[in-house]
Amino acid sequence: MVIDRRPYFRQVASPARRLVFKRGESEYEVMSSPGVIRRVPLSQVREALGASPTSRRDFQECDMTAAQLFREGSDLWVEYPTGITVSTGELFTP
Q1: Model pTM?
Q2: Are 10 and 77 a contacting pair, CB within 8 Å?
Q3: Which of the chain's termini has less CB crowding within 10 Å, N or C?
Q4: Are 91 and 77 in contact (CB under 8 A)?
Q5: CA neighbor of 27 nearest in space, from 46, 9, 8, 14
Q6: Whole-angstrom Cα distance, residue 72 to residue 57?
Q7: d(CA 32, CA 38)
Q8: How many Cα atoms occupy the beta-carbon half-sphere of 8 within 13 Å?
Q9: Phi then psi for 13, rounded to 5 degrees?
């Protein structure tokens, strides 16, 4: 599978925790075309994915999947808006 017209993303960092409070934002890698990866904070992920403001549910479900994968230590990518997860190797296999 090669990236077609859909962007992929994954969470790569979470906010720093201090006692019960979190400071900062989660960070994500967004791949919009093969080999083009941008690192963005949570506040810019929707824009980087090209998500419309009306697609809130799709984004929330994909973000929950990315967060769960991050907590599990996985390096899988989440396809937006379908939520399908794929490995880096699968993304570049013709």
Answers
A1: 0.86
A2: yes
A3: C
A4: yes
A5: 14
A6: 23
A7: 8
A8: 22
A9: -155, 150
- Residue 42's closest CA among 67, 19, 79? 67
Q: Which residue has the tokens 């570049």?
A: 92
In the chain, what are the helix, strand and coil shares in percent, each to the nearest 5? 30, 35, 35
**What Cα–Cα distance (Å) separates residue 12 from each residue in 54, 67, 74?**
26, 9, 10
**pLDDT tens, position by position, 6-57:** 899 999 999 877 777 777 889 999 998 877 899 999 999 999 998 887 778 8
Tokens linked to 41? 């904070």
Q: Where are the alpha helices (DSSP H) in 1-94?
A: 42-49, 56-72, 88-91
Note the pLDDT tens digit of each residue in 3-16: 567 899 999 999 87
